[in-house]
Amino acid sequence: xxxxxxxxxxxxxxxxxxxxxxxxxxxxxxxxxxxxxxxxxxxxxxxxxxxxxxxxxxxxxxxxxxxxxxxxxxxxxxxxxxxxxxxxxxxxxxxxxxxxxxxxxxxxxxxxxxxxxxxxxxxxxxxxxxxxxxxxxxxxxxxxxxxxxxxxxxxxxxxxxxxxxxxxxxxxxxxxxxxxxxxxxxxxxxxxxxxxxxxxxxxxxxxxxxxxxxxxxxxxxxxxxxxxxxxxxxxxxxxxxxxxxxxxxxxxxxxxxxxxxxxxxxxxxxxxxxxxxxxxxxxxxxxxxxxxxxxxxxxxxxxxxxxxxxxxxxxxxxxxxxxxxxxxxxxxxxxxxxxxxxxxxxxxxxxxxxxxxxxxxxxxxxxxxxxxxxxxxxxxxxxxxxxxxxxxxxxxxxxxxxxxxxxxxxxxxxxxxxxxxxxxxxxxxxxxxxxxxxxxxxxxxxxxxxxxxxxxxxxxxxxxxxxxxxxxxxxxxxxxxxxxxxxxxxxxxxxxxxxxx
Length: 501
Prior knowledge:
Layout: H1 15-22, E1 40-41, E2 48-49, H2 69-93, H3 104-113, H4 117-120, H5 138-141, H6 185-204, H7 228-249, H8 274-286, H9 297-300, H10 331-342, H11 351-368, H12 376-413, H13 422-437, H14 449-459, H15 470-491, H16 495-500
Antiparallel strand pairs: 1-2
Helix pairs in contact: 1-12, 2-3, 2-6, 2-7, 2-8, 3-6, 6-7, 7-8, 7-12, 7-13, 8-11, 10-12, 11-12, 12-13, 12-15, 14-15
């Protein structure tokens, strides 16, 4: 048994009092991203909720107290790692890269996973925008950041479990090419890398691996239907960004960390308190731009809208460049909009608004109390906003897992037809699995330990392919539908939206 979840955070802590103090006036029919909304004055004291994630320092007049550059750097490291995995097959085929021996590909992956800022901080990154990014080197974003050091289990002071013993959701040891240990998060990532490397060595030597239908497989896709590019990206997003946000920076179970960090004095010479910075770092991992509320859902999802916003970023300050630390949308904050825009009108979601407003309101409560103790009502209001932010963040992950259940079911419906694509099937299933693994990293997840075990028993460690028997195929279809129902019920998603996603 997992037996590691603390009781779910129910939004009941003095909420009647807290809401009367801090509830801001809101149009119930407003779109999730309302660019015309003005600041809302709270009917208690002088607390004013800004439209954007913008807060002035209480210690350095005229200077911002917001900073989460380390989180931005890790988002960029992950995007570049994902792009590198995706381009590896073409690099081998064009002879611009050769995997001649064990360790060659691991070194390529570790450049990002175990990034050495002292040696490579002045090198340029791959992520590009139009207009170009304000930052051009890794050190321009933030110095000395890695992915491996913040993945669940490796920054353990606030972990709600020991991830070297209590990590669950993956049981197939064959993914570890060299007898690696898949029982903890870093070990599973290494296993993904080792499998990519083995496939890359085979391709470099002239071997062409094929899928069940004779497809030429890129080095990151296995014949069993695993897309290791997608598994790596989605799993790290959960085991790092979501884990750090929910179980570290927004938690309240360790003195001096998360919501229990100091808000009385300046954090050294920095223009913020420790608590302001903890909250900012969680916001950074969520991945929203500072003016996220000015985007439509289509724009956040990079699926249309105004041309200057339609790629998921915007030159808000008009300086002719995209500041990755404030003007770019990463990770879960993008997925939230993807699910909102495709939810059924009969059962809509508004994850973008819930998350962003909670982050902004919570930070406002913190900033308003700098230099003094919180009142009971203020801290209850802060906990409420924390709960709302984490809830929306996790719901975006769970909703995206449901989306890929539906995509995988759609792939299976195409078995035996010319429309079926093994590559697409592997991609969709792997995204499903990667997102579903993330649900264990919130100590107050609405998915219980027993449900998490059941979910991954239903999903398995690989998709069921067209080569299976009809009974196996029908059985797995039923399992996917059961997994979808489990998730829909756990998060309270409407049936129409669950089917629509």
